[in-house]
Predict the structure.
Amino acid sequence: MVLEKYIRIESNVIYIWWALEDRLVKLLGMRIGRRIFIGIVSSALITSIIDLRDYIHENRLIDLPGFSQGPNVYPEGIYTSQFHKKMLFSKISLDTLSKLLWAMQGITNPVLLFRTAPSAGGLYPVDLYVSNNGLFEGLKEGLYKYDPLSHSLLLVGDTAYPSSDLIMDVDYSRTAAKYGRKAKRYADIEVGHIYHNLFIESLVSRVYPQITSIVDSSDIGLHGDTSILVSFLGLEVSMDRLGKYSVEEILYRRRSRRVYADRDIDRETFETFLDYIYLVHAFMERVLGNGVEVYLNAVEIRGIQGGFYKVAFQGGGWQLRYIGPSVSRELYETCFPVDGFHQSYVLGGKLQLVVVARSGLEDSLTEHLLTGFFSQGIVLVATALGLASVTVGGFDNERLHELLGLKYGYDPKFIIPVGWPR
Ligand SMILES: Cc1cc2nc3c(=O)[nH]c(=O)nc-3n(C[C@H](O)[C@H](O)[C@H](O)COP(=O)(O)O)c2cc1C
């Protein structure tokens, strides 16, 4: 069974190699640099598959079970649910663990290898570990690494790390090669995206994923730089409302989309979108705290005056506070060209959101965690409404700070263009 899966994956990788070689190289005009790049990426993939072979032979690869979709509770059911933590009296089944790991980093496109959470440059700097102190049923105690490609656990150590059940191990060097100074910010924000996914899947599974501490990875014998330790508590949840999607389906559907149809956004969709963003914001306040705000640039929204607004969340809803005329061109120019891209799609959105974090500690993990958590909610609720979006982090911070007229201690983190998919 495991071997069958492994062979399937290995042949997929070889297929991807040929498909990439053939299509991309043609598309990119046979440039030697690109060819070498593709060669390196695909050989890294193949090497990782070959590494799996050792785990299989030594019986250290645990095939995670498949799972079925939960109830349709996304988004309203999830974000308005009432819950409180309690002691966890029973073990967590392997089926639940399988779902939680998939929600955090599972593969959603077996050819392009996209995952459930976005990642700057698709570099995926966060590794997941299961530290089984006896909480997970049918799994012997020890430390396991999650392998997204094969959706398996690899037994990497015989002793678990005490007082934690899941570990997100962040390796900044993976993003540093491409993003230099911004590497830490991007990788930390990704932790927030992943934590959001874990949270909403945990609610459905009736467990509470609590971050208990953040430590240097080397202190607990892991390979990355920073480790975020998560422990599960029990949870009583009541969900009075339903939603259109199951959590698994919405995670599966999310994708960064950069091409938008030339069609305005109707007022009803727009207002529902802001209602949902309000719910995400309130949910974040309940589970993590506050520290993130959002600006909105309206370009083509039926019945709404074009312009730049601050979105205020208060009194159980949202309000738009007009700041001035539309700044889409200026927003685009702040991205021009950062990280080597022009990001002209920022201009294509029928609206643009700007997520700003406010904190005393500039560029701290906490503020990035909030940013990622909130922004993941934004892209998921956009997906639930059939809207297309992408979280753009590649802009000149000082220019955007100035454009928004922000005070010291406020830092713009994402521009998110939104429109209908084309
Ligand atoms: C911190 C962060 C920064 C990002 N910055 C950009 C960006 O500047 N421009 C862009 O087009 N996409 C950006 N993305 C989106 C990634 O390119 C995208 O997630 C990745 O290609 C994987 O595709 P997927 O989101 O469809 O799974 C960013 C994502 C994250 C998490």
The chain has twelve helices and 16 strands. The pocket of flavin mononucleotide is lined by residues 114-115, 118-120, 122, 186, 189-190, 193, 255-256, 258, 339, 343, 390-394 (CB under 6 Å). The chain has a mean pLDDT of 90. The first strand starts at residue 61 and ends at 63.
